Amino acid sequence: MSAENHYLDAVEALDSGDRETALTEAYKAVKLDPEHVDAWQIISDAHLSADGKAADLTSAAKSLTAVKTIVKLEPTRIDMWVRGGRLLADELGLMFDALDWWQQVRHHAPDEVTPLIEQATILADLGMYKEGKERIQTILNENMDVATSQYGRVHQLLGLFNNAIQQNSNEYFKPWEKRHPGWSAIESKMRKAPVSETTIFMLVTVPILFGVIILSNFLAGEGLGAFCLTSVVIFIAVIAGMRFTKNMFRTINRPAFNLLRAMNFEASSSYNVISEDIRTSVLYMYILQRKPVAWQERMLLIIDEKNKLPKNWKMEFPDFDSHLADIGFVEDGETPFWEAENAEPYEEE
After folding, report:
1. Nearest-CA neighbor of 236 among 228, 224, 226, 225?
2. What is the pLDDT of residue 328?
3. How many angstroms separate the CA atoms of 70 and 86, rounded?
């Protein structure tokens, strides 16, 4: 059988839900034709569940390998770049690698907004707010086209960065600093699970709404006007309660967010920075159980390896301007390659 026939059998098997047969046939196809992009995509698809998530560490790694092959053969496949970035950051916890991955996308699609948004999101999760704002600012400075579905995320990230930068940078939790005050905050709250936003809203807003309804009968009276006035007051109370709840949620659960950042750092760097007491706490297990299965399995491997963070360790980022050379960008004072003295003149044939 030809590679194309094996590929068609793989498509049929995957459509019927038989992922094992789909993988078998797809691997036969790429063995005969290593550049069969569609067969490689079947391999990536079959290692993921119906909702697009990897079932375990092995599945995530194999799906990512197939994605890497696809983008190497067809670098313009933005959908596969997006899948690879999600597998790296979300399923495997490799945030540093994801930053590099999205920078590679900029080499092939410099006008695409998604890589900048994803890089900014990762930097925000790592607490690198200044660098994250620069990613969002690049979108604005270059007047890049932002899809309607992405406006909200860009606005949210920009607001987060602006608020964070106004604060003292020493207050940012840095899990790679052993004596950072954030560790003490985590230890003080590690015996309890974080408080949900819904619980805070119910405790704060519901009593106020109940009071508004009771008082409206005495102050506003009855009739359409009273009903409209009460409705407006309730609406204002709900909006104010939601905003207050969101702020309280982040304040109360700051130790949980700090621990989440520390766990993401461990997953990204493969170094252990969390103490054994914290690692066996209620808060740690609560966060761990809500991570993807592949992430959990990889974290257990990192814990078993017990690699300590080297002294004087420094976080390194990819060259976020590395793609500029591909599009002929030159900084002030540099001579464009087409005007260089040793450049050969263009001659018409």
Report:
1. 228
2. 59
3. 15
